[in-house]
Specification:
Blueprint: H1 50-59
Region (Disordered): 1-66
Biased composition (Pro residues): 1-14
Biased composition (Basic and acidic residues): 37-66
Length: 66
C-alpha cells in the first residue's frame, strides 16, 4: 500500500454549456391579449354561415327548450 495521495481527476475541457436562463419580464400581463379575449378562445366559430349557425343552435338546444 502506498501513502501517496491519489491524483485528482482531470478537469473537463471547460464548463459544459448550459441553457440560458429565461429573462425576467416585468411588463404588465394585462396589457397583452390572452387567448380567451377573442371569440375563437371561447369556442366561437368564425365561418359566419347563418344556416350553419341555425343548424348548430337546433342541434345543441337543451331538451327543455323544445
Amino acid at each position: 500500500m502506498s501513502t501517496a495521495p491519489e491524483p485528482a481527476p482531470e478537469p473537463a475541457a471547460g464548463p459544459e454549456p448550459r441553457d440560458p436562463k429565461p429573462a425576467l419580464v416585468f411588463d404588465d400581463p394585462l396589457d397583452q391579449q390572452s387567448s380567451d379575449d377573442t371569440d375563437r378562445g371561447w369556442g366561437e366559430r368564425t365561418d359566419g354561415d347563418s344556416a350553419a349557425d341555425l343548424r348548430r343552435f337546433l342541434d345543441e338546444k337543451p331538451p327543455h327548450h323544445l
